[in-house]
Every structure is written in C-alpha cells, then in structure tokens.
Specification:
CATH topology of one domain: Outer membrane efflux proteins (OEP)
Number of strands: 8
CATH class of one domain: Mainly Alpha
Radius of gyration: 43 Å
Shape: elongated
Strand order of the largest sheet: 2-5-7-8
Largest sheet: 4 strands, antiparallel
Number of helices: 10
Strand content: 5-15%
CATH superfamily of one domain: Outer membrane efflux proteins (OEP)
C-alpha cells in the first residue's frame, strides 16, 4: 500500500484577493513597518556617529596623553620598580631568620681517629647511627656592613634618577602632543583652504559657460577654466591625504582607537603668553630634564665607586642557632630521643685578598664617572647654543606670521577687486584665477608660519624644563 504525503496545499484563494479595505489595511501595515525600520536605522546611525566623535581641546588632549600614553606608563612602572629596589636595599638592615631541616641515611658511617693509648683497638671509630634527623632555626643580623649603607644611598639616587627620567618622558610626550594637535588643526585648515579654492574655480567655470552661450567668451576660456578646476581638485586630494596619518599620530599619543573621529575645539592662534619670552638660561640649566639626568648620572657614578670600595671593609653579624636532632637505627620516630641545642655569637668576615678584583672594579667606576662628567659639559654647551637659536627663531617666525597675515589681507582685497572687475566685464577670469592663487598661497604661508612658531615655542618649553602642571 502506498501512502502519499502532500507537503504543500494549493491555496483555494490567493492572498491578495479580498475587499479593498483589507488591501488598504495591509498596505498601511507595510508602510508603518518601513517607516519604523528607517527611523530605527537613522537613530542607530546617529548614535554611532555621536559615539565616535570625540571633542578635544588642547588641555583635554594633554590630559589624555599623560593618562594613556604607553611611554609614560612604562616610565612610571620603572619608577615603581626602583621603589621596590630601594625597599630591598633597606631590607638588608633587618635580621634574617630561616628554618632548615634534613634527613641522612648513613650507609657508611663517619669515623673518628683516636690514639692507641686509649685501649680501644682500631684507631678509626665509627660515629652515629643509621638514621640521622635534624632541624634548625637560624638567625643572622648585620651589625656593621659598609655595603648595606652604600647600597641604600646608591639605590636612593637611582630612584631619583628614574623619577627624573619619568619627568623627561612626560615632558617629551606633552611636547609631541602639542605639535601633533596643532599639526592636525593645520591639516584640517589646509583642506578648507583648498576646498574653497575648488569651489571658487567651479563657480568661475559656471559663469564662463553662461558667457560662452552669450558669445562674450570662447571655448578656449572655458577649457582653461576647467584646467584650473582639475588642478584645484588635485591640490584638495593631496591635502585630504594628510588627514589620516596626522590624525593617527595624535590618536597614538593619546591612546585612542583608530576609528574614533577627533573634533579639535582650539583655534589656530598664537596665545599672548607665548609672546612673553624672558631670559630663562639659568632656569634651563637647572630644570632641563636631560641635564638633571646627567647630574644624577654623575652622582650615581660616585655612589658606585663608594659601593665598590666597601669590599675592602669587614662585616660583623650576630648569629644564632637552635637545633633539634635525633639518631636511631630504626624508624620508630615516636621512641626517638630528640636533643635540643642552641648557640649565639658574633661572626666577623674580613677580606684579605681577592685577586685585585675590587681594585679593577673601582677603576672602571672612576672611568664611568669621568665619561659622565664629559657628557654633561658637552650637553651644557650644546643646550646653551640651542637656547639662543630657539629665541632667534621665535622672533623670526613671529615677524613672519605678522607679514603673512598682512599679505593675506592684501591678497583678499585683490581677489575681491578682481571678482568685481570680472563681473563688470572689465577684467578676465585669468585675473580672478591669479588673485585666487595668490590668496591661497598667502593663507597657506600664514598657516605654515603659525605652525613653525608653535613648534619652536613647544621646543623652547621642553628645553627650559617646563612642566605641564
């Protein structure tokens, strides 16, 4: 017998059949669903964009850099590591207490040799039993140790050195963050300038097309104008290609994710306090992080010499011992006779000869100190010269910004006059194009002058050891 299973049943009435009211109701439901779907999509998109935008002032950027930058985190971790090293050095002053225990199976027992006169026969007499158990509590307390004293001072100086290194790293990151922040601002501004130039070139093409139709201009004029549009597009693309790498450099310094869109809120200006430069040569010599590190490096070399020389001095320790031991030929531990012994005493160690090892180590440390002193003297002369160079460059770039700002105003007026002449039919579009290019070059030169001044000023702050706080 064969059974037939019908998987699909043919509908007796198509789903679209019915009265007009039903069709209208179904259509309204579909429209409502589509509307809700579109509204949800727009809301989600808006939320994602809002979440990806990060508005940053320069102060906010510096705060993020000091909190999230990897180099600063590593430098702070090295400071913490050195703090534990100092605690370790201080721990050498404390007593050492430890327990030791052991078991020996005397396969061949130890012997003691006795003289023949004792009447014991063989002079070699075995000692002990088969099983030997022992446990002891040992105490060691340093009373005098030149090494412990020198090591503590050396580690304290090393901690100061590491803190100064951390300070220098933070200053360098602050310097790099300021430069990257304003580099991103300038890159965005250059894109705006090139975009305005493209818009103006396209407006000129539209105007020339109308005049060609009127017969007042020729196709040659139109083709020339279109060439200028193509050049403007190329300049815009080149400017836009710099946004991503410059932005990523800033995000890397701030510890931000690449997909975040940065919106910088500060403006491209020279702050008034950045113009008030006074002679900080002594401040630079006293506060420059690299010079302070070199001073501490010299101090470390001197402490290293003293610590190495401690090998010439004796050490005195208080020692103590409390022992618990037993010996038997069986393993009935509960029946053992456990014996307790104890002692206290002083231990003196005095080095006599170690193959001139200490002498050679001292000579190496002295050479390292001389090298550190020479590096400090060279760096001081170098930074003095660099300081004078930065002051000269700051004056030059400030004058350049004023000149370029005046030039930008003049070219803006010339562009406005060229456009008016062109509108009244007196001038040509070539005059407008030349005026547009002159204005663009002047604005770009002004932006470059602002960038050069800010960069030089931040290097000046880094040189004189200016802290963020």
């Amino acid at each position: 017998m064969r059974t037939t299973i019908q998987l699909f049943q043919k509908p007796t009435k198509p789903f679209w059949s019915g009265n007009k009211t039903d069709l209208k109701s179904i259509s309204m439901k579909f429209l409502n669903i589509r509307f809700l779907f579109l509204l949800t999509s727009v809301f989600i998109s808006t939320t994602i964009v809002a979440q990806d935008n990060v508005f940053l002032s320069l102060e906010d950027a510096l705060g993020l850099a000091t909190q999230n930058n990897t180099d600063i985190t590593i430098a702070n971790a090295q400071v913490h590591s050195t703090e534990y090293a100092l605690k370790e050095a201080k721990g050498n002053y404390l007593p050492k207490l430890f327990i030791s225990a052991g078991y020996n199976r005397n396969i061949k027992r130890q012997v003691i040799f006795l003289p023949d006169g004792l009447g014991l026969g063989d002079t070699a007499t075995e000692l002990g039993l088969d099983n030997d158990y022992q446990a002891s509590l040992n105490l060691s307390f340093p009373i005098f140790s030149k090494f412990n004293i020198a090591n503590k001072k050396f580690t304290q100086t090393r901690l100061n050195f590491q803190k100064e290194v951390s300070r220098g790293v933070e200053q360098s990151i602050v310097n790099a963050t300021k430069k990257a922040y304003f580099a991103y601002l300038i890159t965005k501004e250059v894109v705006k300038v090139q975009q305005n130039g493209l818009n103006n070139a396209q407006k000129i093409v539209e105007d020339i097309e109308r005049r060609v139709q009127q017969g007042t201009l020729t196709d040659f004029d139109l083709t020339s104008a279109r060439v200028q549009v193509a050049n403007a597009k190329n300049r815009l693309l080149e400017a836009q290609s710099n946004i991503v790498p410059v932005g990523n450099s800033l995000k890397l310094l701030l510890g931000l994710q690449p997909e975040i869109n940065l919106v910088l809120t500060d403006s491209l200006t020279i702050i008034e306090k950045e113009l008030q430069l006074v002679d900080h040569i002594e401040t630079m010599l006293n506060q420059n992080s690299r010079l302070k590190q070199m001073d501490l490096d010299i101090e470390l070399s001197e402490k290293q010499i003293k610590m190495t020389k401690t090998s010439y001095y004796p050490t005195v320790d208080v020692i103590g011992n409390y022992s618990y031991q037993a010996q038997e030929n069986n393993f009935r531990i509960s029946d053992y006779n456990w014996i307790r012994t104890s002692l206290v005493g002083l231990q003196l160690q005095f080095p006599i000869f170690n193959g001139t090892v200490t002498k050679n180590k001292v000579n190496q440390a002295k050479i390292a100190r001389e090298i550190a002193i020479g590096e400090k003297e060279y760096a001081t002369r170098k930074y003095r010269m660099y300081y004078e160079e930065l002051l000269t460059e700051l004056q030059f770039y400030f004058q350049k910004t004023e000149i370029q700002q005046e030039n930008m105003k003049l070219t803006a007026e010339a562009l406005m006059l060229a456009k008016k002449r062109y509108q009244f039919g007196i001038g040509t579009f070539l005059e407008v194009n030349d005026a547009e290019l002159s204005y663009t070059r002047a604005r770009l030169s002004w932006l470059q002058a602002i960038s050069d001044y800010n960069t030089t000023y931040y290097d000046y702050q880094l040189l004189i050891g200016k802290d963020l706080k």
